[in-house]
Design brief:
Elements: H1 7-40, H2 42-48
């Protein structure tokens, strides 16, 4: 006999994968923003000394 579907478990698994993907995307966006900021501000840092 087949198991009856466990919708809660399936939903939690989908949400978990979405959270991982969302966190990876946020991390990538933060890294890109930091890179852009670093490219913009080297003149300011070297002139401050």
């Amino acid at each position: 006999m087949a198991f009856k579907p466990n919708y809660r478990q399936e939903r939690l698994a989908r949400e978990r994968t979405k959270d991982v993907k969302r966190n990876e995307k946020q991390k990538r966006r933060e890294e890109d923003a930091a890179k852009r900021k670093a490219e913009r501000e080297p003149d300011t840092q070297s002139g401050a000394s």
